[in-house]
């Protein structure tokens, strides 16, 4: 009887091993159907544009349609929460950026990027700027801080609570600014707020506000990136950190799979993405024309940069939660 049970157990294990092996080998043929890039923000913004530009070329590389859909809300947290629970079969991929680290550090969600399988960084917003109306009585960050100290709460700064722009608000407060922080959606929602004079300052992608600056409606206060822009029109605009504000970042648009995805699938998408970014001249011309930086980081480097950023934000977790 014992031998029978032992043989039965061995047979069961062997059968399971065969099933597991065949399922893994079958997935190496991925993709067999369309792949969905789920952008965690509304259409028309930075992440959405970059995802759509890449998807067009990934379709050719992978031999299956790569489509883009948007699940906006809560600074990208709604999309992240949904993708986190999806089947790890390689057909749903989250596209997000810094906001996922912000949401975790601010305790807005009880998960973070480590609850996904990172794939790769595929772009960066090189020119993210802080702008105000041309008639505003300040032209620099230090002048803004001084004016806000004279009139606490008078000037409204619109940011996406729980998203990357919240870091700007915290940094300005740390630098001494006495602003009225207004919760907004993404960049597509913030622009009308400044145009309608409902707020006084907004962080925006350069490409979305350059026309208004050229027309004399807006003016730049700072570049929110960690380094100055190479753009001729922004080269003299200082970064927030140069202006004495302890904040600044790069929008590293990143792809994440649900936890448990076959590593071969992750590697295949990462390699295809790297090929498009590093070798496809048409793609590079397209995104650079939109003032985006075609950046590729493999999975290992992606994890490193996300880890570094996460640790920096966890240090100001209480501030992000409004405790101090």
From TrEMBL:
The keyword DNA-binding does not apply. It comes from the Bacteria. Keywords: Receptor, Signal. InterPro entries: BUG, Bug_dom1. The keyword Ubl conjugation does not apply. Residues 1-26 form the signal peptide. It holds the Pfam family TctC. PANTHER family: BLR1237 PROTEIN, TRICARBOXYLATE-BINDING PROTEIN. Belongs to the UPF0065 (bug) family. This is Tripartite-type tricarboxylate transporter receptor subunit TctC.
């Amino acid at each position: 009887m014992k031998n029978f049970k032992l043989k039965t157990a061995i047979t069961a294990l062997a059968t399971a091993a065969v099933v597991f092996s065949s399922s893994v080998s079958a997935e190496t043929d991925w993709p067999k159907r369309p792949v969905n890039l789920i952008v965690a923000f509304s259409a028309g913004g930075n992440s959405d544009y970059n995802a759509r530009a890449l998807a067009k070329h990934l379709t050719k590389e992978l031999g299956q349609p790569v489509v883009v859909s948007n699940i906006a809300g809560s600074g990208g947290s709604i999309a992240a929460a949904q993708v986190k629970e999806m089947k790890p079969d390689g057909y749903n991929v989250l596209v997000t950026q810094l906001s996922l680290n912000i949401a975790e550090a601010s305790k807005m969600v009880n998960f973070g990027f480590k609850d996904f399988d990172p794939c790769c960084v595929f772009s960066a917003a090189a020119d993210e700027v802080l702008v105000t109306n041309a008639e505003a009585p300040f032209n620099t960050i230090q002048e803004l801080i001084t004016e806000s100290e004279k009139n606490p709460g008078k000037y409204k700064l619109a940011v996406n609570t729980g998203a990357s722009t919240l870091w700007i608000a915290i940094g300005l407060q740390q630098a001494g600014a006495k602003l009225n922080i207004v919760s907004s959606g993404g960049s597509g929602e913030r622009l009308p707020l400044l145009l309608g004079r409902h707020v006084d300052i907004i962080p925006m992608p350069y490409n979305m506000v350059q026309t208004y600056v050229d027309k004399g409606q807006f003016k730049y206060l700072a570049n929110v990136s960690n380094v100055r822009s190479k753009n001729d029109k922004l080269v003299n605009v200082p970064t927030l950190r140069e202006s004495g504000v302890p904040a600044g970042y790069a929008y590293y648009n990143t792809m994440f799979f649900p936890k448990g995805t076959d590593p071969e699938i992750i590697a295949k998408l990462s390699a295809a993405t790297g090929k498009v970014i590093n070798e496809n001249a048409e793609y590079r011309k397209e995104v650079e024309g939109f003032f985006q930086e075609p950046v590729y980081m493999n999975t290992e480097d992606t994890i490193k940069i996300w880890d570094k950023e996460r640790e920096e934000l966890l240090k100001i977790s209480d501030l992000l939660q409004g405790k101090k």
